[in-house]
Structure formats: C-alpha cells, structure tokens
Fold this sequence. Notes:
single chain, about 425 residues, alpha/beta, four-stranded parallel beta sheet, 17 helices, 8 strands, about 10% strand, binds iron/sulfur cluster
Amino acid sequence: xxxxxxxxxxxxHEKQNRHKAMxxxxxxxxxxxxxxxxxxxxxxxxxxxxxxxxRQKSLHEGKTKIGTMCIQIPSEIIYALDGVPIRLCNxxxxxxxxxxxxxxxxxxxxxxxxxxxxxxxxFSDKPDIIFSPTTxxxxxxxxxVIEGFGYKVVDVDYPRVKESxxxxxxxxxxxxxxxxxxxxxxxxxxxxxxxxxxxxxxxYAQSLYHKLCEYRKLEHVPINGTHMFMVTGxxxxxxxxxxxxxxxxxxxxxxxxxxxxxxxxxxxxPRIVYTGSPPIxxxxxxxxxxxxxxxxxVADETCSxxxxxxxxxxxxxxxxYDMIDSISDKYLKACTCPIFTKNDDxxxxxxxxxxxxxxxAVVYQAFAGCTVYELEQRSVLEAMEKEGIPILYLESDYSPxxxxxxxxxxxxxxxxxxxxxxxxxxxx
Length: 428
Ligand code: SF4
Ligand code: SF4
C-alpha cells in the first residue's frame, strides 16, 4: 500500500537538499573506502560531515553564529565575544549551480557556491550576521548579493598591499572596528581575559595541526592529504573542543602508525605539495585524483588548510590592545592569498614546504574564473622551475564532468615523477 509520504511531491528546496546530501555521501564514501590503510579515527569526521551536510544537524544551538566570508576575520575575537565562527566558503556543485543564476557564469565556483548556499537556505547552523573582508573582487561583491537575501553583511576593509606600514595600520584599525561592531551586536564587552583564553584555545588547535603535520614528514606517511583537508575543513564549523579532541585521537593513531611503520602509500609514491584555490568539502576532486594516482599530499599551501593554522598569534604583552594588534598582524602578514600586489611569501612558503616535507613535486590548482590564482601561476611556475621542482598546473571547477581529462593529466604527471624517483634511487 502506498503511503501519503510516497505520494508527496518533492519541493525544489527538498530536491536541493537531496542533491547536496548525495554529493556529500559520495565523497564521504570515497574517503572511507577507496584509500589504502585509512585511519580509524577519521570516523569522527565522516559522521560529523554526514550529520551536518546530509541531515542538517545543528552543532551550535543557542549560540550566536558569526558567518565569515574568508579566513581574515579573527576567530579569536568571535570566541571572546561569545560567538561561534562559521566559515561560509562552500564546495558544493549543487550550490554552485544555484549561484550561477545570481552571479556571472564565469565567476569562481567557490564564490558562486557560497552565494548559492544562501539562496537554497539549507544551513545546519544559519549565520546571524556576516562579516565580509574585502579580499578578492568576487568575495567583495558577493556580500551585496547575500544582503539581498535579508542577511546583515558587514564589510571589513582589507588592504591589498601587505608589506607597507600603512597597510598594517589600516588593517589594525579595521580589526578594532570589527571588534567594536561585534561587541555591539553581541551586547558584550570584549575583555582581556576572554580574549586571552580565545587566543590560547585557537593556539592549542593550531599546535595540534602542527603536530599532525610533523607525522606527514615521515617516510611512511600515516595520513592522506585528502583526509587532512577534511580534518581542517571541519574547523570551518565544528565545536572547537570536539575538534581538538578528535585531532588528539588522530595524533595517537599517527604515533601508533609511526611505531609500526604503517603508511598510506609505498616509498616510491610521489610526495606532493598542494597549492592554489582551496579544496573545500565536498569538492575534493583534485586531491582525490592525486591520491588515487598512487601519490600522497604531504603538505599544502591553501586557505582551507595550512593558511588557517600555520602562523600563531605572537603576543608580547597580554593586554587588550597588544593582543588585538598581534591578532591583526597574524591575519595580514601571514596570509599568502594571491589577492596581494606582491606575494613573494607564497613562493617562499611553497619552496619551504617542498624542502621540509621532502616533496617531489607541486600541484597548483586554480578555479576557472579565479583571476588572481590564474595570474599568479606564472611567477610560481617560474620560481619552481628555478628550484628544479616539477609542477603541474590545473584549472578546474566544481563540475563532476571534468574528471576524465583531469585524471589523465594527473596520472601522467605522477607516473613521470615516479620514474624520476626510481631512476634517482638506482643512481644512488
Ligand atoms: S582564496 Fe583568498 S580570498 Fe578566497 S577564501 Fe581563500 S583566502 Fe579568502
Ligand atoms: S579562488 Fe579566487 S576568486 Fe575564488 S575566493 Fe579564492 S581568490 Fe577569490
């Protein structure tokens, strides 16, 4: 007998939710089942992503959710003012398609998907207010589109020159203004003790990330880079204490693997540093292709992972103003996003990562429509060439149809690196 439920016609909203759940579960299953020696403690993250993206389960009921459009909005100040930061950068193709009706077709998929998410309105934790730093042009313009959906969006002035003292001062003022705006919104005063404890809390999470990365330097790399993107991606929205607890368990498992020499790939497998437009769940297309081609991502220079955790807030004096200045410096000086006029720091960081993680090559992804990553590829490619570091440049988007062409290029590149490694080993 057919129930009423079976007769029910799906609304467009339900259809979008179903498509997103399908995208999410497909990637979770790949991560769970299609890699060699997957880590048991990743189970926490599979369940978390399933809860949030397939069941729209709220993690922060009763808390004020502060939406951030980019990594430059200081989470330390949000926590200190009793809010929860929710990073809104989005990796869903379903949302990208929805966003294509609201933004130019040729816009960056990350930005279109972020806007599309607001149109489909299927948040597990809906932001109460959004702070949007004026980073790349597309992010800057997306704020106004999102405002059209009835959200309060506050622009936060971000400089595009990194080196000058004037920029530093400009950004410090912006961060102070952000603290004032949020303090008013929360009707709460920013105190020295709450800010100090937030700096320490985030510092602790960063220290765990660094410890995890130490294990990736081993010859037997205990964790896949695609899994690492999931771990760092969870930091966009998870409860910070649950996240740190889950990463502590990953660390214990890495230690066990180190003792038993268990790795996720063979010794000859290419070790890759990943850079460029950020892989954001569930758009792990390129990292997955790399690691399905018998390579392993040992480090990355992206804003969905390394850039979020790399640099700590360096505080000299634990008074309110010094802390705010130190926090501001971390979010400007340490940022290696290509939105800046000059960006030698990014090149330096990639080279350092290659050396420190004994990587064999670099893969550089640029989203179609992202001018800044496309523009910066030339200088990065030249610098890698000078250093003798092989690099593969790929342009990609969120569409599932691109897989075949990309996988041929990735496989051929990894094969050439493997050959080089084998030759080198024979010579030695
Ligand atoms: S790529 Fe740059 S502008 Fe875009 S989200 Fe990342 S840090 Fe922000
Ligand atoms: S990938 Fe490019 S266009 Fe997209 S958010 Fe990052 S910098 Fe902006």
